[in-house]
Amino acid sequence: MGKHLSVFIALLFLSLSLFSSVPVSETIGRVAVEIDDGSITAIALEAASKEYTESWLDEYAADKISFGEAYSPLLSSLLPLSGNIIAGEEKNNAVTIMEMEDGTVLTFIFRGGRIAAISQAP
């Protein structure tokens, strides 16, 4: 009886760990599953889902003028990303997001809570 109980408990803990594992994308790595309000992940997801306009620059860019000069052609053609967007885990003040429909991948690099740079994966 004790042996069966030990096996049951071991299986229970094993199954619980499976439910708590973080999904992994081959493209962006570990997927963020809990996103805190005000985090750079939340900001990146919000920014990616909005149309790129002058008010977008006012709200999200660290330096409106230099950022606009550097990234307007890219962001004008890509934003807004459609509804199904996932984000990777934050690393070194950056977060990578991916649109699931067409595979667009953007990395948002932050400085002081605002977007300082963006790179697009090939």
Secondary structure elements and pairings:
Layout: H1 2-19, E1 24-25, E2 29-30, H2 40-48, H3 54-60, H4 64-78, E3 85-87, E4 94-99, E5 105-111, E6 114-120
Antiparallel strand pairs: 1-2, 3-4, 4-5, 5-6
Care to give the gist of this entry?
This protein has helices spanning 2-19, 40-48, 54-60, 64-78, and strands at residues 24-25, 29-30, 85-87, 94-99, 105-111, 114-120. The protein is of the alpha+beta class. The longest helix has 18 residues, at 2-19.
Widest β-sheet, arrangement of strands: 3-4-5-6
Helical content stands at 40-55%
The global form is globular
Question: Which structural category do the helix and sheet elements fall into?
Answer: alpha+beta
Distance between the termini: 58 Å
Order of helices and strands: HEEHHHEEEE
Radius of gyration: 19 Å
> Total helix count?
4
Average pLDDT, all residues: 86
> Which parts are unreliable, with pLDDT below 50 for 5 consecutive residues or more?
3-19
Could you tell me the strand content as a percent range?
A: 15-25%
SS elements, strand count: 6
Largest sheet: 4 strands, antiparallel
